[in-house]
Amino acid sequence: MTNLVSFHEAFSLPAHLHANTPAEHRGNDRSDVKLLHTERKSGRIQDHTLTDLTELLQPNDLLLFNRSRTIPAQLVSETDNVTVRLARQLTETSWEALILGKDKTVVQLQDGVTLHVQGDGSEAPLKRVTFHGLHEPVLSFLHKYGEPIRYEYINTPWSLESYQTVFASVPGSIEMPSAGRAFSWKLIHQLKQNHIQVGFLTLHAGISYYEDNQWPDPLHHPEAYMIPAETITAIHEAKARGGRIIAVGTTVVRAVESYAKNKHSHQGAWKDTTNLFIQRETPLQLVDGLLSGLHEPHSSHLELLRAFLPDDALLSSYQHALQNNYLWHEFGDVHLML
């Protein structure tokens, strides 16, 4: 395997492995998901459950979570027969957005609000749009009339709360940073009882799919992030104690490695925007392991995973996941590369 095209040709995702129901509605708890563990050094593959993390991790390891909260970023105009998926905020009222349906320069929304198309976005098919006629903050309007972005494999209108992690506290993600979704406070407490450290940062995740087999190019899709001072301190202290930094989700990898690239020794809070595209050749400066969901063949997330595993180990892991009925997407199972 030498690129994502060949990875795509190596496997396809059968319909029954699309997770369309949150784990707590399939089992007893949101932590009732399977965990596929691929050892980075040996390539050995093992089957676990997420709660086995208390045994798989070691004291002084630091588990880093993204606490960004999902916003209801999809608006539907029944008047114009148009669906708008916000992709990235530019100013208070200006956004990049994906517009599905009729080709419109002005989209009629609720309460007399209109959305004006100003031009092309950072990459096709995104457009730059501006809200007009608002009498409240955009976020307030979205919470009145918006809904979470749901893709075709979801056949139930799950509530916005279904698209939140238990620790989500900073609104801004277009789509849920889903690797942390399966964690409950009970599990986090058990990890801390085992002297496994826990830290948080914020990276507002953008849209992940443009429809019609088009995926965002990370180089054209910058995302804002913030790492609190206490988390930066925890990273450096964990390293000094010989602990490992395990990112929960690709968003955390992007934030931490962006920080490392720009200001490795900085000790205070760090806030920036990143378009870092982590690939197989990208050296990882701080992150030692990754807990992630399972990704579709064309997803750019797979390129980031190649920084953690050789191609043959990554492909073997995905083939194992397919053969053993692991579930994909935001309500699915997880993959630990450590």
List keywords for this structure.
338 residues; 9-stranded mixed β-sheet; S-adenosylmethionine:tRNA ribosyltransferase-isomerase; queuosine biosynthesis; 6-stranded antiparallel β-sheet; 17 strands; globular; alpha/beta; S-adenosyl-L-methionine; transferase
Describe the protein's architecture and organization.
The protein has 338 residues and is an alpha/beta fold. It contains 9 helices and 17 strands. The strands form 3 sheets. Strands 2-1-17-16-14-3-12-13-15 form a 9-stranded mixed sheet. A hairpin with a 6-residue loop joins strand 1 (34-38) and strand 2 (45-49). This is S-adenosylmethionine:tRNA ribosyltransferase-isomerase. It comes from Shouchella hunanensis. Keywords: Cytoplasm, Queuosine biosynthesis, S-adenosyl-L-methionine, Transferase.
- The best one-word shape is globular
What gyration radius follows from the Cα positions, in whole Å?
20 Å
Estimate the strand proportion.
25-35%
Question: Between the first and last Cα atoms, what is the distance in angstroms?
Answer: 21 Å
Q: What's the main sheet like?
A: 9 strands, mixed
What structural category do the secondary elements indicate?
A: alpha/beta
Number of strands: 17
Give helix % range: 10-25%
Order of helices and strands: HHEEHEEEEEEEEHEHEEHEHEEHHE
- Unreliable residue runs: none
**Taking strands numbered 1, 2, ... along the chain, how are they ordered across the largest sheet?**
2-1-17-16-14-3-12-13-15
Pfam family, one: Queuosine_synth
Protein name: S-adenosylmethionine:tRNA ribosyltransferase-isomerase
InterPro entries: QueA (IPR003699), QueA_dom1 (IPR042118), QueA_dom2 (IPR042119), QueA_sf (IPR036100)
Keywords: Cytoplasm, Queuosine biosynthesis, S-adenosyl-L-methionine, Transferase
